[in-house]
Each structure stands twice: as C-alpha cells, then as structure tokens.
C-alpha cells in the first residue's frame, strides 16, 4: 500500500512538472559586439535568467531563445569572456508570446564577471563566490603550448608542482604518485584513479579543454574526500553550431646541458606532437572527435615517452532545456622510468640499476551527464563515470614485473532548487565503487556513498550566506569503514559595485588512497611497505579575502588562509638497508599551514596589453615534530605579460619559487640518492612570439617559444633535474 502511495505522488509530481513546462512564453534575441565599427555576432555568450535555473548560450548567429517561461517579469544576465557583463530587468513575458531582448556587449581588457561552476556546483558570477578561485582559459593553455595540462597549472597563483603532483597553498608535499589532497574533476565528475588515488592529467586531451577552474581551500562539504586542499575542474569545450576542424602541430628541441659531464647523448633530443579534432552537428546532436600522438625523446637518459590519445564527445539536446552528453577517452603510453639521478656530476643519468626500467599504461574512461530543467526553480543533473586504469612496470632488479588494474565507477545526482530568487539550494548524493586487482596491490572491492547539501541565502542585497554539509561513508584504503560529516560556512559581502569581501570556514577530510595503505611494490631499490593502520586525515580551513575592481583596467585580490590538520598523511623513509629505500605512508599527529596570497590583473588597450602578478606566502608547520613540512616552498611569485599588435602577439612568464626548506634528507645521508641535498630556489623565464594569419581562407596561428630561456638548473624533487632551455614551435590550423 505504501509503495502505491509513493508511486501515485511521483506520478502527480511528474504531471505537474509537465504542465509547468508545457505552457508559457519565450524571450528571444541577439547578442552582438562592436569591433572596428562593425556589428559582429557573439557566439557562445551565456544568457541566464536571474533568480532561475534557466539559461542558454548564443548560436553561430549570436541568437538565443529561452522558451516555456511562465507569464511574468524577468531579468536576463548576459556574459562572455572578454566583455562586460550586462543585465536587463523588466522583460515582460505573456502566455504564448515572444519578448525580444537584444544585447550589445562592450569589450573589456579584464574579465570581471566571469561565470564559474565549481565553487557551488552551479553557474554563478566569480564575484559571488565566497572562496578563492582562479580560472585559466583555452587561449592561455594554447599560447603556452601545454601538451599536458599539468604544465599549464604551473602558472596559476598559489599552485606549484612537485614532479607531477599538485600543491595548492602548501596543502600537499610529495607522495611518490599515490594519493592527492587536490581533487581533479572532468566536467564536474571526480577523475581520480581507484588504486593509486592520483591525478591523471595526461588522459585528458589539452586541445579539448575550454577552461580550468581552481578552487583553493577545503571543499569537502560539496566534493568529499580528496578535496581537502582544493579542487581542479577541467571543463571541456562545447560543440559549436558550425562544423569545424582544428589541426595542431608541435615540435621542439631540448638545449644541450649546461655542463659537459651532464651530456649523456651525442644526439639532440627532440619532442613532437600532432593532433586533429573535428566537431559538427546533425540536428540537435553534436559530435566532437579528437586524436593525438606525442613523442618525447627526453632530456634525461631513460626518460622517453610515447603517448596516444583518443577522445569522443556526443551531446544531444532535447526540448525544455534538457541535454545528454556522453564522452569517451583513451590513453595508451609507454616509456622509460627515471626516479632520481646517479649523482650531481651525472645529473641526467639514472643509477645503473634503474637504467632500463620502463612503465606502460592503458587508461580509458566513459562519462554520461544528463541535465534537465523541471521548472523555473528546479534543475536536475545526473552524472556517471567508468574509469579503467591498467598500468605496470618492469625493472632490471628488485621485483621485476608488476601490474595494477583498477576500475572506478561513480554515480552522482544533484538538484539545484530556487524556492526564491534570493535563495538557492544545491543537494544530492553520490556513490563510488572501485574494483582493484593485479600484483602491486592485492585484490580489493572498496567504495562509499555520500549525501550533501548547500544553501545560499541572500540576507540583504549586498550580503550572501552559504551553509553546506556533507556526510561521507567510505571504506577506501582503511581497515575499518567509517563516516565523516563536513560542514561549511561562507559569507560574501558587496558593499558597493566592484568590491567584494569574503570569508569561509570549512572542514575537510581525505580517506587514504588504497596505494598509501596497501602498496607493496616499487621500482628497483625503492620499495613501499604497507601500513594498514593508516587513518583518514582531517582539517579545519579558514579564509578571509577581498576582491577589488581597479576601475576599468583590472582587479586586485588578497586573501589570508589557515588550515589545521589532524592525522596528516605523509610519506616517510623507514629503512635504507642494503642501499635500498623502504618507504611508508604514516600519520602526522598535528600540522598547520597558514599564509596569504595576493594577485593583480591589469589590462589596457582593449586587451591588447595584459599584465598579471600573483604572490603566495606559505608557512607549513609539522607541530608534532616542531619542524617544517616537506616539499612545501614558502614563497611563490608568478608574473605574466601579454601583448598584441594586430596579428602579432607575444608574452613572457616568470616564476620564482623559494628553496624548499625540507626534503627526504635521509635519502642523501644514507647514500641512496647521492647529492640529494643539492637544491636551490627556482627562477624560470619563458618567452613566446606568435602570428595570426590566413592562408587562402584558412586561419592559422604560428607560435614560437623559448622555455627556461636563461638555462636555469633547478630541481622540484630530490635528485631530479628539471628541463633545460627548450625551443618549441607550434602551428594551429582551423577550418
């Protein structure tokens, strides 16, 4: 009887929703801009109905249409990167009628009101976000000739890389490829390996990325485990209205080493990459296909790479603002394995025992995302993913061959509810299951589920309160399953236009990755020891910040932050007997990371000249040992300058990272890594020059780059010399 009542109520709700969306009027219009005295349509401009979940983007003609609106008065907000956001109120919609609203956007050298989706799992203006968030768009990625996405992350303020691992505001050190305190999302879906718990950037094709949004600070209240230190959301490109083809050719060469004794090969070392993508539409179905290959000889001995990527995206749009997007990606790569140098005199050569070590991986994923607008105040989004990770390595000594196979399954459903135009609720649930096999980690079936909710309330016109709560139950990587509740409180106050004060207080947690607790393999003489007593790590995170517009020429942002950790998971060397390194992940009882960050973005001459600078200071303390946490530099300073004159453009980037106070000194003291104490601050300068031109009717872009132009020798990780001066030439062809 009870089930019949539930079915009846569900049927009534569906009928009511159908009636709600079956009648009403529409708002239609054009979005254009003025350029060189000409009116040009803007393609891909975002058009949102304020106080509603409804919205759309403009087509190839700059047109938009929002249908099935109940009679009433509406406010539209139109935004696009490179243009000032425009709002128009009082648009009256009548039953069965069409209301015309045309917009002409004014270009701006700096994007003030960029629309982001990561902070609250919904579209909102960057100025409304109560946490620090940075955005890097596709043009920045392309101009820097980033072949893998983690190369682009090195230029985002507050973010630095230790090898291939991401560190946001000192939250992470280096954990040898297992575990991450930063959660990677692909179009909002967690994209993390089920066995090692690492971020796998090379599986995501850089050429299909629209932008990268980086949330700094604990975000576990919405995203759960691994969001302890922040979130990186990689958002792929929308499929255009008009068929398009993009070909990209990249080639480059490593400069000879600074010192003759470092030169291990008489041949020049090259790298190359080719990619092609094609996107088109058949009615309401959009299709995008991407293929690429990358060959890298490597500037170090036995550090070569061969990589192949396939990516497919399908998107079907239905009536009443419903859409289904399906993606598939495949990565196959193999190459040599380089762990650390033989000595400083042989800085580009591995130890003899590691000379022929190699690694191979096959990874593929498929995702599905269905979004539908039930009515003006209710949007439902469902996401699913299957991520298959198969990797293995072979060593000359030690364990020989080893392999790990993991299948990660994820499901999430989330609703955005607007009971009132000043009240937004985000709520949902997610489930994940990991199937792990192979001989690197013993066979396991693990997983968990979560419930989450967030309420954003505009208390007064300039003040918005955010309250969030998430409950996670998980058995990942721990011997005893358990739950965790994570709250979040945020405030954003805008006393007048262009000025936003923000503060947030949140609890974060991270369950140990399976590899951290149960890994029992390694490379050559570097071997892991399992720790089945490893406990989840937790923190309380606090931030206060100010964002200020500087007239029409730029923005200024400053934030102070602090995180207090309990049971922080760090990797420690436990034994170095017989010239072998045994390491294990352990809990640090107490730790604290605090500091401040500031950034300035300036633009002049309608974006023809842009200057960005960001500085981050971090004080990372191991309170248990009264010491500094490992692999966390205290000072980060990034600057970039971009200029364009007609078709010619150029840019320069500079990165300063202070000398890391503490690394695994025991490796050097025991002779496992000779000269491992040798490290210095990082001072890297890159130059680029580019030209846009047409060959017939085909637009092309040619870019020449010199990375590490002054041949600065430095390490990010003990015993690992980073690339010397590198010359890169790239050609982009669009048809």
Would you mind describing this structure in some detail?
- The chain is mainly beta and 735 residues long.
- It folds into 2 domains: 19-105, Immunoglobulins (Immunoglobulin-like); 115-734, Beta Barrel (Maltoporin, Chain A), CATH 2.40.170.
- It is built from 6 helices and 45 strands.
- The strands form 7 sheets. It has a 22-stranded antiparallel beta barrel. Strands 1, 2, 5, 8 and 9 form a 5-stranded mixed beta sheet that branches.
- The chain is globular and about 80 Å long.
Main features:
735 residues, mainly beta, Immunoglobulin-like, Maltoporin, Chain A, 2 domains, 22-stranded antiparallel beta barrel, 5-stranded mixed β-sheet, 6 helices, 45 strands, globular, disordered N terminus
SSE arrangement:
Layout: H1 2-22, E1 25-35, E2 38-41, E3 46-49, E4 55-57, E5 63-69, E6 72-79, E7 86-93, E8 98-100, E9 103-105, E10 115-116, E11 124-125, E12 132-137, H2 138-143, H3 149-153, E13 159-162, E14 165-168, E15 182-186, E16 189-190, E17 209-216, H4 220-223, E18 230-236, E19 244-254, E20 269-282, E21 285-296, E22 305-318, E23 322-336, E24 358-375, E25 378-394, E26 401-420, E27 423-438, E28 444-460, E29 463-474, E30 482-496, E31 499-510, H5 514-518, E32 522-523, E33 526-528, E34 537-550, E35 554-575, E36 581-604, E37 609-622, E38 627-628, E39 635-645, E40 648-657, H6 665-669, E41 682-695, E42 698-707, E43 715-717, E44 720-721, E45 726-734
Parallel strand pairs: 1-8, 1-9, 15-18, 33-36
Antiparallel strand pairs: 1-2, 1-5, 3-4, 3-6, 6-7, 10-11, 12-17, 13-14, 15-16, 17-18, 19-20, 19-45, 20-21, 21-22, 22-23, 23-24, 24-25, 25-26, 26-27, 27-28, 28-29, 29-30, 30-31, 31-34, 32-33, 34-35, 35-36, 36-37, 37-38, 37-39, 39-40, 40-41, 41-42, 42-45, 43-44
């Amino acid at each position: 009887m009870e089930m019949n009542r539930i079915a009846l109520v569900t049927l009534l709700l569906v009928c009511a929703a159908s009636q709600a969306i079956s009648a009403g009027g529409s708002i239609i219009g054009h979005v254009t801009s003025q350029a060189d005295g000409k009116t040009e349509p803007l393609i891909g401009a975002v058009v949102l109905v304020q106080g509603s979940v409804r919205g759309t983007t403009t087509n190839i003609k700059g047109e938009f249409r929002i249908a099935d609106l109940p009679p009433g008065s509406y406010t539209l907000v139109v935004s696009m990167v490179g243009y000032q956001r425009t709002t128009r109120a009082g648009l009256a919609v009548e039953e069965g009628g069409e209301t015309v609203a045309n917009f002409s956007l004014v270009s701006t050298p700096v994007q003030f009101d960029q629309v982001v989706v990561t902070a609250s799992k919904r579209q909102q203006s960057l100025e409304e976000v109560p946490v620090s968030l940075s955005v890097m768009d596709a043009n920045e990625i392309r101009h820097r000739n980033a072949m893998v996405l983690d190369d682009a992350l090195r230029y985002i303020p507050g973010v630095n890389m230790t090898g291939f691992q991401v560190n946001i505001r000192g939250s992470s050190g280096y954990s040898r490829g297992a575990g991450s305190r930063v959660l990677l999302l692909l179009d909002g879906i967690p994209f993390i390996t089920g066995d090692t718990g690492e971020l796998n950037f090379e599986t995501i094709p850089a050429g299909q990325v629209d932008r990268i949004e980086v949330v700094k600070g604990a975000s576990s209240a919405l995203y759960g485990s691994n969001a302890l230190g922040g979130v990186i959301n990689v958002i792929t490109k929308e499929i255009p209205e008009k068929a398009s083809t993009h070909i990209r050719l990249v080639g480059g060469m490593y400069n000879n080493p600074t010192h003759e004794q470092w030169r291990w090969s008489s041949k020049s070392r090259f790298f190359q990459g080719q990619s092609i993508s094609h996107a088109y539409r058949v009615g309401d179905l959009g299709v995008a296909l991407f293929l690429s290959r990358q060959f890298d000889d490597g500037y170090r001995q036995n550090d070569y790479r061969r990589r192949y990527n396939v990516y497919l995206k399908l998107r079907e749009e239905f009536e009443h603002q419903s859409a289904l997007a399906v993606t598939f990606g495949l990565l196959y790569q193999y190459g040599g394995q380089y762990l650390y140098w033989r000595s400083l005199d042989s800085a580009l050569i591995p130890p003899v025992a590691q000379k022929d070590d190699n690694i191979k991986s096959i990874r593929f994923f498929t995702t599905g995302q269905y979004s539908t607008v039930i009515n003006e105040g209710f949007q439902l989004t469902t996401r699913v993913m299957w991520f298959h990770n198969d990797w293995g390595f072979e060593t000359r000594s030690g364990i020989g061959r080893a392999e790990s196979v993991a299948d990660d399954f994820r499901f999430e459903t989330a609703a955005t509810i607007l009971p009132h135009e000043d009240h937004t609720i985000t709520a949902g649930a997610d489930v994940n299951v990991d199937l792990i096999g192979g001989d690197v980690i013993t066979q396991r079936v693990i997983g968990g589920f979560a419930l989450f909710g967030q309420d954003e309330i505009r208390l007064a016109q300039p003040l918005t309160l955010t309250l969030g709560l998430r409950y996670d139950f998980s058995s990942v990587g721990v011997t005893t399953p358990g739950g965790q509740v994570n709250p979040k409180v945020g405030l954003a106050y805008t006393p007048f236009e262009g000025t936003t004060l923000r503060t947030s207080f949140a609890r974060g947690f991270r369950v140990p990755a399976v590899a951290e607790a149960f890994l029992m393999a390694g490379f050559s003489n570097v071997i892991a020891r399992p720790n089945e007593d490893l406990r989840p790590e937790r923190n309380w995170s606090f931030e206060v910040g100010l964002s200020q517009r500087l007239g029409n020429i730029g923005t200024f942002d400053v934030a102070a932050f602090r995180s207090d950790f309990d049971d922080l998971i760090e990797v420690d060397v436990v034994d170095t007997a017989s010239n072998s390194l045994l390491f294990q992940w352990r809990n640090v009882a107490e730790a604290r990371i605090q500091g401040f960050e500031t950034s300035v973005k300036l633009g002049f001459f309608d974006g023809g000249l842009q200057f960005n600078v960001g500085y981050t200071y971090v004080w990372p303390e191991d309170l248990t040992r009264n010491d500094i946490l490992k692999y966390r530099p205290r000072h980060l300073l990034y600057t970039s300058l971009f200029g364009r004159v007609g078709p010619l453009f150029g840019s320069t980037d500079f990165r300063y990272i202070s000398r890391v106070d503490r690394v695994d000194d025991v490796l050097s003291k025991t002779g496992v890594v000779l000269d491992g104490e040798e490290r210095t601050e990082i001072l890297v300068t890159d130059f680029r020059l580019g030209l846009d031109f047409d060959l017939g009717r085909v637009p092309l872009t040619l870019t020449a780059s010199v990375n590490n132009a002054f041949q600065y020798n430095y390490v990010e990780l003990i015993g690992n010399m980073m690339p010397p001066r590198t010359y890169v030439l790239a050609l982009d062809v669009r048809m």
